What does this fold into?
Amino acid sequence: MDTATRIEQALTAAVARAEAPPAPPKLAAAVRHAVFSGGARVRPQLCLAVAKACGDDTPAMSDAAAAAIEMLHCASLVHDDLPCFDDADIRRGKPTVHAVYGEPLGVLVGDALIVMAFEALALAGAAEPQRLPALTVTIARAVGTPAGLVAGQAWESEPNPELIAYQRAKTGALFVAASVAGAVAAGSDPGPWRGLGERLGDAYQIADDLRDAVCTPEELGKPAGQDEALGRPNAVAEFGIDGALARLQQLLGEAVDSIPDCPGAPDLQQLVLLQAKRLTPKRLAPASVA
Ligand code: FPP
Ligand code: MG
It folds into this structure.
C-alpha cells in the first residue's frame, strides 16, 4: 500500500473512533473538518519514509505514529486560527473550524485531537509494547513544553523571542519528532535521522515566512502578510527576502545530504525535493526547484 493511502486509512480509523455514538454530532463533524480539509500531510509522510528506510517491520506502529503526528499538527492549526491567537477565517482554502462551528468547538476539537493522537499510539503499541514509551515521549515532547509546539506558541506572548528558538519549538520540533518517530516505530536507532528532521523543520518555517511575505491569500489558501501584521519574529524580517531564500536553499541541500546511506534514501531525497518545489514561492524559485 502506498504511503498516502496508509496515512489516510490511519486517520480515517482514528476519526471514526471519535465520531462513533454517543459523540456529540457537531464535535464529530468539526473533528472531521479539521482532519480532512486538504492538508499536505508532510509530517506523516516524513515519518513513514523514515520508517520504510529503517525496514518498517511493524507498519501498524509507524502508521499510528504518522497519524498521531498529523492529528497533533491539525490540533495546533485549529487552535492557532482561534480569535485568541491569529483569528483566521480561512485555512487550506476552506473556512476554519471556529468560523464554521464556533469558538467553543474550535477549542474542543483541538483538545479532542490531542487525546486521539495518544489513543492511536496506545492502541498500536500492543504490536511492539517495548517501543511505545520512547515513541510516546518523542511525540509528547515535540508538542508540549519546554521545547515543543505549545512552548513555541507561548513565545509569542513574551517580549523579545529569539527567532531560532521560537521557530524550532513552534515548527521544527514536530519535524524532528516525525523523523525520529519513524525510526523508533521501526525499532531502529533514531540518532542518524534527527538531522533530517531538524533541517526540514528549519526549512519549512523559513518557506512559510517567505510565502507569508510574498504570496497572495488565494495562493496560500490562508491569510497572507500575517507575520508583519501581528508583529511576529520571522525570517524575512530578520534576513530579508534574498537572505531567507538563500537559507532555505542551503537547508534543503543539507537535508538531502543528511539522509543516511540506506535502501530508502532515494525515496527520501525525492520527498525533500518535492517539498522544496511545493514550498518555494514560484516567483522566487531558482532553476534547481522550479
Ligand atoms: C502556525 O503558525 C502554528 C503553529 C505551527 C503552532 C501553533 C501551536 C499552538 C496554537 C499551541 C497549541 C498546540 C496544540 C497541539 C493544540 P503560523 O501562524 O506562523 O502559521 P500559519 O500561517 O499556518 O497560521
Ligand atoms: Mg497562524
In short: The mean pLDDT is 94. The chain has one domain: 3-284. The longest helix spans residues 235-258. The pocket of farnesyl diphosphate (ligand 1) is lined by residues 72, 75-76, 79-80, 85-86, 110, 114, 143, 149-150, 153, 170-171, 208, 212, 222, 226 (CB under 6 Å).
